[in-house]
Amino acid sequence: MTPSASASAAPAPAQRNKPATVLFASLIGTTVEFFDFYIYATAAVLVFPKLFFPSSDPTAATLQSLITFALAFFARPVGSAVFGHFGDRIGRKATLVGALLTMGLSTVAIGLLPTYAAIGTLAPLLLAICRFGQGFGLGGEWGGAVLLATENAPPGKRAWYGMFPQLGAPIGFFLSGGIFLWLGEVLTEEQFFSFGWRIPFIASALLVLVGLWVRFKISETPVFQNVLTHDTRVKVPVVTVFKQHTRVLVLGTLAALATFVLFYLMTVFALSWGTSALKYTRREFLEIQLFSVLFFALAIPLSAVLADRFGRRLTLILVSAAIVVFGFLMAPMFSSGNALSVTLFLSVGLALMGMTYGPLGTYLSELFPTAVRYTGSSMTFNFAGILGASLAPYAATALASTHGLAYVGYYLSISAGISLAALLLAGRASEGDFNA
Description:
The chain is an all-alpha fold. It has one domain (19-227, 235-426): MFS general substrate transporter like domains (Growth Hormone, Chain: A). The chain contains 21 helices and no strands. The protein is globular. The two termini are 28 Å apart. It is found in: Cell membrane.
């Protein structure tokens, strides 16, 4: 074979993505996904109990609504397995587009659903189906967005790149809370429950279009392109994860447990308890939460800097220990109902959330080799969602109603203790084969 023929037969070098494009593509996708997820969480507390369930027992209606909220967390591992399979077989880019479309269409459909007054028991059934679609899409979105960032990261900045998709969480929450706050200002209560609550769900289509546009502009990550070049893909990634990476899967899931419990106690449960037991209006409590979310957003880049300097695992260990202590402050700080105390409590809690959430995506992705990284990191994250978030608002409401807020704090401290133990047992992440 001639030198020219050899050159023509060699695989073309992977196209490098521009850092700004990569970071924006990873950020916008998770912003869209979490915006969609949080508008459901807010509506599950404020809207759905009144419109999609029998109104004879308000407490039962709220608990039923929270069960549909939990449904998405059980759908997420299914989405992880399906989208993870294609992400590890075909590529990150195409799979991310499919995940974004799945969740976007499910969210818009919720905004178009008829209510219980119109179609009876079929209304909550359709709501549950759409909620499953949201969870299914997010199950494939998060892992791909993290890999899009970390697999394009230069040496020494993987946690910094990996925190950009994590920033989508506070931004999505801020946008979702902000739009509900705005609707409360411009609409009457009757207008809000008649049609206003539908606006965030339908309007999410605009954010989905932006996310799709930027993701079509990126090329495959160089790390996965290397897998394609050397054809080191596995046939069924989910089987490989369960058979060859069982210990990592279990410990990684438990390491992320506290992150989920903390966040959903600070958001969904706090909103429900604050607007019922503490007698805050919807507007008052959303304003407090939106202020507190700023500390969540600020803590994420800080944690990434620390994680790149001192290590992802050490950062997570220290923050998990702090969350154990924080759990004991719930009753004295939150139960009083004092606005300053409640704001301080939520601000500290969400700051701790940012400190654990920032390096989490990078840490979990480093636990798995490239050939199964999409599937492994996604399933680890979403199994933690089932254990830590799916029933957290429901369990916390039951605990607070029966035993008092102190027991909700104990619930948080125990969860953080489990995460701390898992991180200590897991040892240092292998960091996979990012540089393969």
